[in-house]
Design a protein that fits this description.
By secondary structure, this protein is mostly helical. It is 57% helix and 7% strand. A two-stranded antiparallel sheet has the order 1-2.
């Protein structure tokens, strides 16, 4: 009766829960989805800011971009991953009848949700400009913390949640909707 549970042994027994498999699947496809985020952003930039397709110095720089700064999107990608795990992350593995592994299924589901979300998010001109600033126009001389934080804030508004990182752990809080009083 005096047995004390060792928390480290308890956590080890849950290494195969859905969220750790989902997080691993999300981490594995970062490069693919970061490229897709930049591609969609460039398409939306063309649509909203250069509908005639005129090639000036700025647009030529966008067209010449070779995906060298995709790592700058890591924090933004991580926040989208956290939002997905929060919305769809129960810890129960499901039975998959079509022969796919859980990892394959989670990658496919995540890619599908990511595509929908980035299409919605890049409707916002501030997000388009911010992502281009982090990637295409990043010359490594600027401190882009403000840009990253503003994009993360817009993502939090989109999901109506607040994602905070404390002591290396991401935490999600529901945002309270504020009602404005009519005067």
């Amino acid at each position: 009766m005096n047995d004390i549970l060792d928390p480290s042994g308890f956590l080890k027994s849950f290494e195969k829960d859905k969220n750790s498999l989902l997080k691993a699947a999300q981490d594995q496809i970062f490069d693919i989805l970061a490229r897709k985020l930049v591609e969609v952003t460039i398409q939306k930039y063309s649509l909203y800011f250069n509908p005639l397709g005129l090639v000036d110095d700025t647009f030529q720089q966008i067209l010449d971009y070779q995906n060298e700064n995709d790592r700058e999107l890591g924090g933004i990608y991580e926040n989208l991953c956290v939002a997905y795990r929060y919305k769809y992350g129960d810890n129960q593995l499901e039975i998959i009848w079509d022969g796919k592994s859980h990892e394959q299924k989670y990658k496919e589901d995540w890619q599908e949700a990511f595509s929908v979300w980035i299409n919605d998010l890049t409707e916002n001109p501030s997000i388009i400009k911010g992502i281009l600033q982090l990637t295409v126009f990043n010359d490594a001389k600027k401190n882009l913390t403000f840009v990253r934080n503003s994009i993360k804030g817009l993502i939090n508004d989109y999901f109506e949640i607040k994602i905070l990182k404390r002591n290396g752990i991401k935490q999600v809080f529901l945002k309270e909707k504020r009602l404005l009083k009519a005067s």
